[in-house]
Design brief:
Layout (H helix, E strand, L loop, with lengths): L18 H21 L8 E5 L7 H10 L1 H6 L2 E2 L10 H7 L7 H6 L5 H20 L5 E5 L2 H5 L3 H11 L5 E8 L2 H14 L19 H8 L8 E5 L10 H9 L18 H10 L14 H13 L10 H10 L1 H11 L23 H39 L9 H11 L2
Helix pairs in contact: 4-6, 4-8, 9-12, 10-15, 12-16, 16-17
Length: about 425
């Protein structure tokens, strides 16, 4: 018996290729394979991170402005500045590493200080976006800058959480930290304190809690704690920063070519003492936040206006007693850092660079209080007027909404009386 083969339909038959067609298809497949290899991102095992952690009041804002302004040129030169962690300061990295019970101005401004569930969801999303940015890039050298990493990751657990975020993404993490004379640092922070409605008095040193001025503890807390890489401490003093500018110093340490970069103007200049005291007086009457925790925008704009207007005058300075006290208190810490990292210096910080307070006072305290009250009263009256207009606007909207239910009501005398009363100030 002869088996009959089923006839294969024409549309199912495999088309025969000529030798030329086969060669062309092979070349196309090879090109696709090569292009896929070219698009393949660099393995995270080959990526290095330069992590700038501050400290506060050591030119961090200028460094971040430099990184933001020159992001495209830095990328061309082989340095990647992430965009998923923040536009200027990379504050999201700090928030991802904090404990879930930690609350600071960042969380309050984001409106996530009380909603734990939404906060966890937000952190998860941030981390996913950051990992995607790093893994999807061919860049080998990355730079992250956030001074609050130093001042708000204050426990071993915080730094361990930071390591768990960064270690899977980078084979080496070098940490740059700028150190400033403790008293000079405290005096400089008074500018930020008064903006945040905090006292402008030079505080007494204390052993309780985290001490931003204890540089020995800073070095011990961070050295070797993020895996392979080195800690690079730099001194924020006029005789230590290279070329007299912290941005230039940062570029030289990171081996960045500055010739094609735009250098930023100096940021966060210190206000004169009388300006600080005027704002301090305003703070007695004008709160920083509303009851629900949101920032009072008009108050912030007022403070910035005063800061930009009142520029001249003597800066706030420490007296001799305060200088001697801070020098004695931090002598052991400073000496430990000097021996380990700066043995060529006689002292870690030169006390001559700290200006002593003079007895001259251009404006008396009574005059400062009067000026502060005047500005506060102007602000309160202006805001009262704004609130009054907002209330009338809302009332007007309610009238319109109510009368939209029946068009005939628009023609009634009662409706016209309401409109006239509304505009009667």
């Amino acid at each position: 018996m002869t088996l009959r083969r089923n006839k294969i339909p024409e549309h199912k038959k495999e088309k025969q290729q000529s030798p030329t067609q086969a060669m062309n298809n092979q070349n196309r497949n090879q090109k696709r394979s090569n292009s896929t290899k070219e698009r393949r991102p660099v393995s995270t095992k080959k990526k290095r991170l330069i992590l700038h952690i501050g400290t506060e009041k050591t030119g961090s804002t200028s460094i971040q402005e430099f990184l933001k302004t020159n992001r495209k040129q830095l990328r061309k030169d082989g340095y990647i500045v992430p965009t998923t962690l923040g536009k200027d300061i990379h504050f999201k990295l700090q928030l991802m590493a904090n404990s879930e019970h930690f609350v600071d101005s960042f969380w309050r401004n984001l409106g996530l200080s009380k909603n734990t569930k939404l906060r966890r969801k937000t952190i998860k999303q941030w981390r996913k976006e950051f990992e995607k940015e790093v893994k999807g890039s061919k860049g080998k050298n990355w730079i992250i800058s956030c001074e609050t990493l130093h001042s708000r990751l204050t426990t071993k657990e915080d730094i361990k959480r930071l390591r768990r975020i960064l270690e899977p993404l980078f084979v080496k993490i070098d940490i740059i930290v700028y150190l400033r004379d403790p008293l000079d640092l405290v005096v400089s922070r008074l500018n930020e304190n008064v903006k945040s409605a905090l006292p402008i008095e030079i505080p007494l040193t204390s052993h309780k809690g985290f001490d931003i001025c204890n540089h020995a503890e800073t070095v011990k807390n961070w050295d070797g704690k993020l895996g392979p890489g080195e800690l690079i401490p730099r001194l924020f003093t006029t005789d230590s920063v290279l070329n007299g500018n912290v941005v230039n110093d940062f570029c030289i340490v990171c081996n960045i070519n500055r010739s094609t970069m735009q250098l930023p103007t100096k940021k966060n200049k210190s206000m004169p003492e009388y300006c600080l005291r005027i704002i301090n007086e305003i703070n007695r009457y004008v709160p920083r936040r509303w009851i629900d925790g949101t920032i009072i925008k008009s108050r912030w704009e007022l403070i910035i206006l005063i800061e930009k207007t009142l520029k001249t005058g003597e800066k706030i300075q420490a007296n001799k007693k305060q200088i001697d006290h801070y020098k004695s208190y931090y002598e052991e810490s400073n000496e430990w850092v000097r021996k380990k990292y700066f043995p060529q210096r006689k002292e870690l910080f030169d006390c001559k660079q700290i200006s002593q307070k003079s007895n001259a006072q251009v404006i008396s305290q009574d005059q400062i209080e009067e000026i502060g009250r005047l500005i506060a009263m102007i602000w309160m009256r202006k805001n009262a007027r704004i609130n009054q207009l907002e209330a009338k606007t809302n009332a007007y909207k309610q009238i319109i909404k109510k009368n939209l239910r029946g068009k005939d009501k628009f023609e009634t005398p009662r409706y016209h009386n309401k409109i006239e009363n509304f505009f009667d100030c």
